[in-house]
Structures are given as structure tokens and as C-alpha cells.
Specification:
Number of strands: 8
Strand order of the largest sheet: 7-6-5-8
Largest sheet: 4 strands, antiparallel
Number of helices: 5
Strand content: 15-25%
Shape: globular
Distance between the termini: 18 Å
């Protein structure tokens, strides 16, 4: 269970020096990987390719959220390796999008990034959740649709092993009884380096 906005980039030229000023959202504008390179750029391009496959211009935001949720739960599985000694990508967007596997943080970050790239306001919630195995740290999301916030947990809609994907934790206005929220995060407020080295690739995790 330890599963655990588009940057608007403004370029200022001052005395011949190019300075990038990142707005409150760090996910690049759709189809833009400006400022990223290497693995981070590859992961972003993969995300944009997927969005092009599953999102159409005539979709309402709720339809986009459904498409993103369904892509994640049907194309990724919860990481089943040793959680105490796992690669960093299992917590990053690279996990569910490129490796097809990740812990809750990978699901939550990816859902956040894909929603944000589509202009849908989203947050990551971290806290604790309880199932038949006990209580442990967990991460899920909250998304804004038609002026109202809804909780969504892609990880728990994608049970370990696959084949039982569901909508039990999909767009709930109230937090589920088996989840306890401790912190709400807007990753778009984090630094460019955090996105490059942690959120996108998990290289420094």
C-alpha cells in the first residue's frame, strides 16, 4: 500500500543571459518538453503521446478524467517487488507509464501530471489507508470538476495482480472511511529539479 501545471515558462533575457521563470505549475505545456532532457524528456513525451491517444478536443473534463483513470488502471499494475529495496522509478511517473508498474505515489503523480497537462486542477493527498493487510502510508488524488472537488484513488481501483479493475474509489465528494488524509500537495509548486530528478524519473529516490 506504500503506493504512495503545465509550467507556464516565461523566458527573460537580461544582459544577454537567458533566465527561465517557472510559474506556479511545472508540468510543461502540452507537447512541450522545453527545459527537460534525457530520461525526463522521454517520460514527458510518453505522457503526451498517451494523452493524444485517449483525449479528444470535444471531451468534457469529467470524460478526460475518466479516460486518464481508465488508462492507468488498465495499463499499469501495482509494483510487486520488494518495497524495502525498490528502484526509484516505482515512485515516479516513469513507473506506471514506461515500466507498467509502480507504487501509489507513481499512480498519484501520473494522474496529477496528466490532468494538469489537460488543464484540469488536481492535487495529491498523502496519508494512511487501511485494508485487510493493515494500515500503511498511501497517496491518492483530489480533482476539481465543475467547481467541486472529488477524491480519486487510481491505485485502489487497480488491485494487485490486475483483472479486477473497478470504480470503487472514483470521484467521491467525501473521503472514504478507510482513508485518512494528512497532507495535500500541489506538485506544480515544486522546483524544476524536483520534477526532473524525482517526480518524472525517480532517479534520486
Amino acid at each position: 500500500m506504500n503506493n504512495q501545471n503545465k509550467p507556464n515558462i516565461f523566458m527573460v533575457i537580461l544582459f544577454g543571459i537567458v533566465i527561465f521563470i517557472w510559474a506556479a505549475t511545472i508540468i510543461p505545456q502540452k507537447h512541450s518538453t522545453e527545459g527537460f532532457d534525457g530520461d525526463a524528456e522521454r517520460v514527458l513525451n510518453r505522457m503526451y503521446d498517451i494523452l493524444d491517444e485517449i483525449i479528444t478536443d470535444d471531451m468534457l473534463d469529467e470524460n478526460k478524467v475518466r479516460a486518464i483513470h481508465d488508462y492507468l488502471v488498465y495499463h499499469a499494475d501495482y509494483y510487486e517487488g520488494n518495497l524495502d529495496d525498490r528502484p526509484g522509478w516505482t515512485s515516479a511517473i516513469q513507473g506506471v507509464l514506461e515500466q507498467g508498474s509502480g507504487v501509489c505515489n507513481s499512480y498519484a503523480l501520473t494522474f496529477y501530471a496528466m490532468c494538469t497537462a489537460e488543464g484540469i486542477e488536481c492535487r495529491i493527498i498523502s496519508g494512511r489507508a487501511t485494508n485487510s493487510s493493515g494500515t500503511d502510508g498511501h497517496a491518492w488524488n483530489r480533482v476539481l470538476l465543475s467547481g467541486a472537488w472529488y477524491y480519486i484513488d487510481c491505485t485502489w481501483d487497480d488491485p494487485t495482480g490486475g483483472g479486477a479493475e473497478n470504480y470503487d474509489y472514483y470521484l467521491s465528494p467525501m473521503l472514504w472511511a478507510d482513508h485518512e488524509a494528512e497532507e495535500e500537495q500541489n506538485p506544480g509548486e515544486e522546483s524544476f529539479e524536483t520534477w526532473k530528478n524525482y517526480y518524472l524519473t525517480g532517479e534520486l529516490w
